[in-house]
From TrEMBL:
The gene is ispD. Belongs to the IspD/TarI cytidylyltransferase family. IspD subfamily. It comes from Dehalobacterium formicoaceticum. PANTHER family: 2-C-METHYL-D-ERYTHRITOL 4-PHOSPHATE CYTIDYLYLTRANSFERASE, CHLOROPLASTIC (PTHR32125). This is 2-C-methyl-D-erythritol 4-phosphate cytidylyltransferase. Pathway: Isoprenoid biosynthesis; isopentenyl diphosphate biosynthesis via DXP pathway; isopentenyl diphosphate from 1-deoxy-D-xylulose 5-phosphate: step 2/6. The record marks R16, K23 as: Transition state stabilizer. SUPFAM superfamilies: Nucleotide-diphospho-sugar transferases (SSF53448). Keywords: Isoprene biosynthesis, Nucleotidyltransferase, Transferase. It catalyses: 2-C-methyl-D-erythritol 4-phosphate + CTP + H(+) = 4-CDP-2-C-methyl-D-erythritol + diphosphate. It is an enzyme of class 2 (transferase). It holds the Pfam family IspD. The record marks R158, K214 as: Positions MEP for the nucleophilic attack. Its EC number is 2.7.7.60. GO terms for molecular function: 2-C-methyl-D-erythritol 4-phosphate cytidylyltransferase activity.
Length: 234
């Protein structure tokens, strides 16, 4: 297997959570959300290292979590930037020279199945691999396009629509190139794949799980706890 690095951006504040604490540090079944996320990468035999990206001022707390929960794959913590784009960019600066493939995964997605992580890594590491791959699920609802006054302008064909998740996995050189180009062009995008797509690369969809939710609102914590209970987590 190739040398795999996980980059975990965990610097977002999450205004929709309406909490003073970073959403990554909210408690979920007795552990911070971020700890659940890191445990997935710690347990994956394909992942050699994990670069954690934390908000300025929260690095020491993250170091305490790493020590408390015995994580062994996190050689360094990088400081986050003004937005997700700059946080991931800083994370890329921290990966080892030996790294060949990078898996970027939101710190606030604690319900990723390890089997899905391994599946997407294998897809990118294969001999006939695309330029990258992302976990995604088909859109269930009808999607409307609206104008600035929220008047419907059209109905999108949902048979062609997928909801992007993380991890998003790419060869290191491709992801670094895409970020450099976006930085030069002052383009930000909404996920890593959008930068790679814009650079003219092929990104493959790997079907994921609807349970791989991102903790964004208070209701998400309750839902995540129910999912973990159904999985037998105590």
């Amino acid at each position: 297997m190739h040398n795999i690095t996980g980059v975990i951006p965990a610097a977002g504040r999450g205004s929709r959570m309406k909490k003073d604490v970073n959403k990554q540090f909210l408690m979920l079944k007795g552990k911070p959300v971020l700890v659940h996320t890191l445990e997935i990468f710690e347990s994956c035999p394909f992942v050699r290292e994990v670069i954690l990206v934390a908000s300025s001022g929260e690095e020491d707390y993250c170091r305490r979590l790493i020590k408390e929960y015995g994580f062994s794959k996190i050689p360094r913590i990088m400081t986050g930037g003004e937005d997700r784009f700059h946080s991931v960019l800083n994370g890329l600066k921290g990966i080892s020279p030996q790294s060949e493939i990078v898996a970027v995964h939101d710190g606030a997605r604690p319900l990723l199945l390890r089997s899905d992580l391994e599946k997407i890594i294998k897809a990118v590491a294969a001999d006939d691999a695309p330029d990258g791959a992302i976990l995604a699920v088909p859109v269930k609802e009808t999607i409307k396009e609206v104008d600035e006054e929220e008047i419907v302008q059209g109905t999108l064909d949902r048979s062609k629509l997928w909801m992007a998740q993380t991890p998003q996995v790419f060869p290191k050189e491709i992801l670094q190139f895409a970020y450099r180009k976006a930085l030069e062009d002052n383009f930000r995008g909404t996920d890593d794949a959008s930068l790679v797509e814009r650079a003219g690369m092929r990104v493959k969809i790997i079907p994921g799980s609807y349970e791989n939710i991102k903790i964004t609102t208070p209701e998400d914590i309750d839902l995540a706890a129910l999912i973990l209970e159904r999985r037998g987590y105590r």
